[in-house]
Amino acid sequence: MATLPPVRIGLLGLGTVGGGTVTVLRRNALLIAARAGRTIEVACASARTLDKPRSVDLRGITLHADPQAVVDDPTIDIVVELIGGIEPARGLVLRALANGKHVVTANKALIALHGNEIFAAAQARGLMVAFEAAVAGGIPVIKVMREGFAGNDIQWLAGIINGTCNFILSAMSDEGGDFDEVLAEAQRLGYAEADPSFDVDGIDAAHKLMILASLGFGIPLQFAKVHVEGIRRVSREDVAFAARLGYRIKHLGIARRQAQGIELRVHPAFVPARAPLANVNGVMNGVMVRGDAAGPVLLSGAGAGAEPTASSVVADLVDVVRALTSDPGNRVPHLAFQPDTLENQPILDIADTETAYYVRLHVADEPGVLADVTRILADLGISIEAIMQLDSADDAPMVPVVILTHVVKERAMNAAIARIEALPAVRAPLNRIRVEPLA
Ligand code: HSE
Q1: How far is the CA of 434 from the centre of ligand 1 (A)?
Q2: 148-302 architecture in CATH?
Q3: Can you give the three-state secondary structure of 243-258, one letter per residue?
Q4: Which residue's alpha carbon is nearest to atom 4 within ligand 1?
Q5: Which of 70, 133, 306, 407 gets the most CB atoms within 10 Å of its CB?
């Protein structure tokens, strides 16, 4: 191996992922150097609290309380941003680029919301911004989509890209609890944050979906156009009906090319129990990508955690180090497509998307009620695949009815639901969950 001087990196943040990154870089230093062609040395790091006891060995690393000291250090080649959130991360990344440093980041919110600006700044200076760790932790999905699928017309991708939601839905399915009970259990176990809204309301998954969709379809990042739903409305009953009907409920991020534009949506979905993604459980993540040439490819693994995420950070560092001397024009483009070929294709309004539906309603157990419901569906051109009325558990006046539809435009389903909810014999609101065959 040529004896080039070590590459010096500066870490912003010494939390879970920062600590994991130092540990992996140290433990596998020789392997990593053999792959990168240079030694990678953590020269400095910033942390909010410097005197906190840490399990990671920080010997030889200069510590700063001020993250700006890291991005302004003239001896640093690559800044690794592991702070998360928008500010100060955005300002620090832009400043690192202005100072001529390459950047590795695990920050999905930053890339999803400000990636266009950050990539343009990097491009203007011939610098790299790598973000494998921003999506699905230890799963190398960015690399696969950007490089492995380079010959494909990507038709759709669907991902379980939030471990907290997957843990909660898996536990509801395996143990039969309600959302609130299982969330509390996930918080006790440390799988869900004290404020879980970013995860359970789908924002985190939407950040990741936006990044994957850009890579897949050559569209600029446009987070505001992602349709986002979380899992709070999924009930114990829905989970039980799904099992009875041969499905599991998963929280999915879906990007799909249609003739009129691209669907970008995050929501719970019925997934056939035999589909590979239905069997990605607990905190695991999984992403299925369908290319016209490769067919469907499933990647699954740990979506979070110190070392899985560090695995992706270090892989990015190796990529950046290998490309340090390459002509910027010949590097893998940030969003898979050359920047001047990114295209503003229409993103479909959720009302224009097409899926099958599961609908659960409670109706009065009287003659003609089901006929009224099915007439509304028929009038709107919605074809029923299955309908099931169950006995009321406790002789209550309302009985649960479950309907599975064939594929329908969401606009028609919205109209049907409004009319069904207005029937006097129906208890509003009913619950609906999209059905995704993933085939
Ligand atoms: N909070 C995320 C999750 C992990 O629950 O999957 C980091 O993106």
Answers
A1: 23
A2: 2-Layer Sandwich (3.30)
A3: HHCCEEEEEEEEEEEE
A4: 304
A5: 133
